[in-house]
Design brief:
The protein is mainly α. Helices cover about 60% and strands about 5% of the residues. It has a two-stranded antiparallel sheet.
């Protein structure tokens, strides 16, 4: 339909209005303690009733992604290139916010971010590099398993239901944008990267991330 892609529209560059939020978010993070920052973000989230509209928690993740994308390369492995923020003090605050103060509300937003990032999935590692909480990692792993199970559903509409739910898009969205195989592959990449930087053997092992078994 004239090249219209709902996922592309939702993942489009942040609007001029939302870009102004970057300045406000930067000021918020620099001038207030973490508990107050979390309260401010979550209060706005609780007021928001439209799941298809970005609230302050979504914009917080947009801000974080922007800061990392404009940061410096951080290469644990050439197969998993990522970046870190230039401002290490700000990065430390963001890590604590994500893993402690904004948990558990942040979990579904991270899953949504990873699931929607169809065209530049390598950048999922930028946010994954900030994840340290076992509880968040467990949620990513469980979502990977959910998508992996859905790959084998024959009915194309039923097969894509869970991906669309995590993406928080309309059920009428084109199934091509909600392939569980593609989504599982994106989550697998994130989980492999996390296992490089942190011991997660109590949550999953390398053999748990196989999408196919030997013939």
């Amino acid at each position: 339909m004239n090249g219209f892609d709902p996922i592309d529209r939702m993942n489009a560059a942040v609007s001029t209005l939302e870009q102004s939020q970057f300045i406000n978010m930067d000021k918020l993070l620099k001038e207030r303690d973490l508990a107050s920052i979390a309260d401010t973000i979550l209060e706005d989230t609780f007021r928001e009733t439209d799941i298809f509209r970005k609230d302050l928690l979504d914009r917080f993740l947009d801000f974080v992604a922007f800061k990392v994308q404009t940061g410096e390369p951080h290469i644990l492995s050439l197969a998993y290139p990522t970046k870190r923020m230039m401002d290490k003090e700000l990065e430390a605050k963001v890590i604590e916010l994500i893993n402690e103060h904004l948990y558990p509300e942040i979990v579904l937003r991270l899953l949504k971010y990873f699931a929607r990032n169809l065209h530049d999935p390598d950048t999922n590692l930028y946010l994954a590099n900030l994840v340290e909480s076992d509880a968040i990692i467990q949620a990513v792993y469980e979502t990977y398993n959910l998508f992996k199970k859905d790959i084998f559903i024959a009915n194309p509409d039923r097969r894509c239901v869970n991906v669309k739910r995590v993406q928080q898009v309309s059920p009428r969205t084109d199934n091509k944008a909600a392939s569980p195989l593609d989504a599982a592959a994106r989550f697998k990449y994130v989980l492999e990267f996390i296992a490089l930087k942190k011991n997660v053997s109590h949550i999953y092992r390398k053999e748990n991330l196989t999408l196919a078994t030997p013939a």
